Amino acid sequence: MTKWYNTNYHYIVPELQDATPTVTENRLVTLYKEAKDELGIEGKPVLIGPYSFLKLAKHYDLSQTEDWLKQLTVVYSQVLRELEEAGVLWVQLDEPSLVTNVTDEEMAYVKDIYETLHADVPNLQIIVQTYFDAVENYDQVVELPVAGIGLDFVHDGGKNLHAIQTKGFPGDKVLAAGVIDGRNIWKAKVVDKLALLEQVKQVVKTPEQLWIQPSSSLLHTPVTVQNEPELDSVLKRALSFADEKLIEVVTLKELLYSDQSADHTAIRENQQLFKDIEATGWRKQEPNTEPFSEVSRTASYEQRRPKQLEKWNLPILPTTTIGSFPQTKEVRRLRAQVKKRLDY
Asked: Within the chain, where are the H helices?
């Protein structure tokens, strides 16, 4: 396992050595039909995009990048065709690697991937979703032959907003604007988010062209705050888990296209919430400067050691560490060389 980009979420790293990409089961078709038949939900299947899948994998020769992407594209085409045949209207392909440093050569590969997918499933609406930062090659990304582009307007440092304002956005694509933070557990300030969306709205031609959404998948948050009955009332109102963030998205959409001069209850309640938070003093607590008191033991180490061995019966070198070990500069350097296939 390794970390999922710059989060503390982990994923199982695909290992491609001696592998041949094939479709063994299209689980997305099964899940789509279940949601539609059992719940009446017209779902939008989501899977990692071909480019990001390869960038997240290991154990393949970098000189074979183009060949691997072609093999993966064939598999993705089959998956998408089966989804289209099942009645799927929209599919989301996550390409978070497009917010990293993408070379011109790699960007050409990305263009080839999506031109092939578009040719294979021309009637399927594909949205390329990015998150965790601003896209590095904005001009090329928004020109990909897809129906929509998803951008993160929370963790982009203002770069995505600047890009759409200065370079525009294609009138024939959906702009999926990630404005609710998918990686924290707090409610957003409604007024601030509306101000951001007002700027984004100026770039699109119609309301249908703008989708409001979280900045990333909500798997980084708990499901709902409703399962926390013993929390302080102000704290509970301030929290926003996955279910609550979806409510925030719907609220923002309703407010964005409503009469802005009206007295909106949702805005007043949100503003009062942040006043209540400030009144609690949680964010004004002084750091604890009290020195730690030393622990005193009545028995010496020589007396404690035999008792510990008898009680725990541990091996000579017991391992109890959870998480990551400290990384020295030398360790980081060697890891970087391994990733770049350099001699060390």
From this structure: 27-39, 50-56, 65-85, 104-120, 138-142, 159-167, 190-201, 233-238, 242-256, 265-280, 301-312, 329-339
CATH pick for 2-258+273-278 out of 2.40.50.140, 1.10.357.10, 3.30.420.40, 3.20.20.210: 3.20.20.210
pLDDT digits (tens, 9 = 90+) for 304-326: 999 999 999 988 888 777 666 77
| Distance, CA of 128 to CA of 74 (rounded, Å) | 18
Separation CA 272–CA 191 (nearest Å): 12
- Confidence check: pLDDT of 344 > 50: no
Query: So where are the chain's domains?
Result: 2-258+273-278
Give residue 271's Cα distance to chain centre: 28
* CA gap 196, 189 in Å, rounded: 11
